[in-house]
Amino acid sequence: MGPPRCICEICSCGRHRCCHRPTKIYDDGVQPSHKTEYVEKYPGYGNFCPPESCKPKPELQEDQGRMDGTTTFKSDYLPYEIVSRPFRPQAEYRPKSGKIDLGTIYQRDYNPHKVGPVILARPQERKHTSGAKVDTIPTYRDHYRLWKGERTESCKVEHPYEPPSEKFGNPSTFQDDYIPRQPNPPQSFKPCETKLSEGPFDANTIHRTAYVVHELEPMFVRPREEYKPSDQPFEDLTTHQRDFKGIPGEQAKSCKPENKKFASDDPFKGTTEFQDRYQPYLVTAPEFQKPREYVPPTDKMDLRSSNRLDYIKHKVAPRAPIRPAPGRKSTGPFQGKTTTKEDYQPWSVCPQGLIKKEPEIQNFTGKFSNLTTFRSHYVPHQANPPQSFKPVHIVSTSVPFKDETLYRTEYTPKKQEICPAQQPDAVGYVYINTDSQGHKFYRQVSPERSGSSCNTLSEEVPAVS
After folding, report:
1. Residues linked to residue 5 through DSSP beta bridges, in sequence order
2. What does DSSP assign to residue 173?
3. Residues 426, 428, 432, CA angle at the centre, nearest 5°?
4. CB-CB neighbours of 435 under 10 Å
5. Residue 368's closest CA among 106, 188, 103?
6. Among 121, 251, 421, 455, which is most exposed with the fewest C-beta within 10 angstroms?
7. Sign for the pseudo-dihedral over CA of 91, 97, 99, 101
């Protein structure tokens, strides 16, 4: 049997860790003792009753007479006579005479016509696809192995819905007050369909009939002048070179001090002033005073105080309540009349009609021609698809295709290992204990088995063909 190891040490894949608790600074492995020095050395006394409270009880004051219910507001308040507010009578509404014309210019002058679907000028898309089937196996599907794991049971308490057996018989306010009415559909102002002319479409325009083709004259091209270099030499003198005259003088001296070496060739002395003049002093250890041993008293403790001995108890009658007695409730009918109900009178309001101005511009009386400039001048042309410059895919059949790759030739199948920390009991580990930091320790009873029976799967991963 080997030494105990925790799950962090048993794991070989790096995914399993122990559940750590809050760390302890000092842990000797000894069980904690809940006894203290006070519990061990405290001398117990006899059964004594707890002392009574010396706090005096609140005394009730005697009745000093009846309280007057009048206040400053009651005594100084003067009621005033309330007069209803005068209001101005509203003028009576009189509707205008005549009928409203609901017609529009669009409804009167619109002539419907049939419109066909627009023919697309874009050529159809040509897809160059192959009908061959792809016969390959992805790496994930080839290497994936399903682990056998138990499914956790749900802790949710299911409450199935039970519909009520009785019928719901409480109608809503909308059902009680709703009165069904027959809908009146509005009158349709759409004009009737008219037939178009059956004759051929005249596509001739003024531009086509009156256009004259003219020949263009050749474009005038200006001749380019030839470059001729100059025979005179290039003057590279600048204004500064021509006008500047150097003044002779001495060279400026450097103000930098000379670099002298301030050092001696003597050997370095390692002694310091503190080492030469230091004088050690003799120090004596401090004396500690030994505490005196506690001697418990032998006499009985007197718990009586001067307040208990000299206190005189008085009998006081309880104070009468100042709250008035509840009044009697009236049993008559409730008066629901208010100022708003008595003085408010609903007005009869009618909806105001539409205010429409008379048109200032007279409408046209002739027939509306639905031909546009685009329709009258348009000439349809047959669209030719553009020429494809894509090279033809030619596969040579005389030379065989080499489909070998480095992955296929140099691939070696590996055995998939199972981490022993996932199920340590099944691999030969026995649980021992859990320390204060949360590490679970296991001890190996039997030696680890061969790779094919314990740590690896029985099936090998085949190479990709």
Report:
1. 442
2. H
3. 100
4. 15
5. 106
6. 251
7. negative
Taking the C-alpha atoms of residue 374 and residue 383, their distance in angstroms, rounded to an integer, is 19
Instruction: Fill in the amino acid letter for 275.
Output: Q
Kind and range of the H or E run holding 429: strand 429-434
CA distance 137 to 464: 8
Q: Report how far apart the first and last C-alpha atoms of the chain are (Å, whole number).
A: 46
Count CB atoms within 10 A of the CB of residue 364: 9
Task: Report how far residue 434's alpha carbon sits from residue 218's, in angstroms, rounded to the nearest whole number.
Answer: 104
**Integer angstrom CA distances of residue 29 from 26, 32, 434, 435, 436:** 9, 9, 11, 8, 8
* Interatomic CA distance for residues 362 and 331, integer angstroms: 79
CA distances from 425 to 9, 10, 25, 420, 438 (A): 15, 12, 31, 9, 19
**CA 102, 106, 111, 117: dihedral to nearest 10 degrees?**
-120
Tell me how far the alpha carbon of residue 73 is from its chain's centroid: 60
Instruction: Take residue 280 and report the two structure tokens written for it.
Output: 């050690």
Residues 443, 429: contact at Cβ < 8 Å? yes
Q: Walk along the chain (465 residues) and give the pLDDT tens digit of each residue.
A: 678 888 888 888 888 888 766 555 555 555 656 667 777 777 677 777 777 888 878 776 666 667 777 888 888 888 888 888 888 888 888 888 888 777 888 888 887 778 788 888 887 777 767 777 777 787 877 777 777 777 778 888 888 888 878 777 777 888 888 877 777 888 888 877 777 777 787 788 888 888 888 888 888 888 888 888 888 888 878 888 888 777 777 777 888 878 777 677 777 777 788 888 888 888 888 888 888 888 888 888 888 888 888 888 888 888 777 777 776 666 777 777 777 777 777 777 777 778 787 877 777 777 777 778 888 888 888 888 888 888 776 666 677 777 788 888 888 887 778 888 888 888 888 888 888 777 888 888 865 444 444 343 333 333 332
Q: Is the Cα dihedral 36, 41, 46, 48 positive or negative?
A: negative
- Judge residue 455's burial from the number of C-beta atoms within 10 Å of its C-beta, 0-12 exposed, 13-18 middle, 19 or more buried: middle
Task: Tell me the Cα Rg of the chain.
Answer: 58
Closest CA to 426 of 453, 407, 405, 404: 453
Q: Please give the order of strands across the beta sheet that includes 429-434.
A: 5-6, 440-444, 429-434
Closest alpha carbon to 442 in 464, 458, 420: 420
Residues 428/387, Cβ–Cβ less than 8 Å: no
Residue pointed to by tokens 């000299």 = 310
